[in-house]
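User: Hi! I'm working on a homework problem where we have to compare a predicted structure to a textbook description. Could you give me the structure for the chain below?
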Amino acid sequence: MATNHEFIAFLHEVFESFGPIQAQRMFGGYGIYHDGLMFGLVVAHQLYLKTDAVNRADFEDLGLGAFTYEMKGKPVQLSYHQAPEALFDERHLAARWARRSWDAALRAQAVKAQQAERAKSRQRTRSGVVSGH
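Assistant: Happy to help. Predicted structure tokens:
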């Protein structure tokens, strides 16, 4: 079995048609980033890709499971699903799957930004500061 370093180096090759990636150690695995945005997760030599309501069915239709871990005795499912094995051999597929997952990460980032803006607006309203007054 390849070492973590070898597997991450291999992923750079796999995603070369998609664009440059960076790997960052986290929680016993690695986050896989493109342009500063995490779209993949590597745990125990398994690649998981970011999913949301738009692309989740693509993974589920192939029987690819979500990354799940246990917290306080209960399973916690993240919005990352196993990557299809075919992408490791076919760079055009790797680029397509990576793009879909990166797009899901972009959508999640946009939602978080909207939520943060709403929270700031509520905080300003509560503290008596109202825009335009």
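For your comparison, note the following. The first strand starts at residue 22 and ends at 26. The chain has a mean pLDDT of 91. Good luck with the assignment!
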